[in-house]
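@channel sequence for tomorrow's demo:
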Amino acid sequence: MKTFFMVKPDGVKRNLIGEVISRVEKEGFQITKIKMMDISEELAKEHYGEHADKPFFNDLVSFITSGPVVAMEVQGDDVVSEIRRIMGATNPSDADPGTIRADLATKLEENVVHGSDSPESAERELSLFF
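structure tokens (generated this afternoon):
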């Protein structure tokens, strides 16, 4: 099974790429594709399409296009749910201790990482980025 996983611009800017990748690899997952890239506004809008009608949509697009990201395809058993577990809750203040967001994120809007929330999302997101 594969999923899409990304270090967002705040994580890249704060030099957290190695720390994030290390946590994924220590859990036994394999990174099968990886690239650093700038996300275009068009790709950002497609990536966050399910949020297009929400008031925070433009902020999501602005943030994800504000600097380079590291996009990855990650493979392993139960990878979608396990990567979500490793990431922690979207809001860092709600994330369990020891998760990426609890340990490294500074605020809800800048929470270091993104991971697909379902096998269907993983397939869609992987096709957008790879």
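heads up for whoever presents: Residues 2-129 form a domain with the Alpha-Beta Plaits fold (CATH 3.30.70.141).
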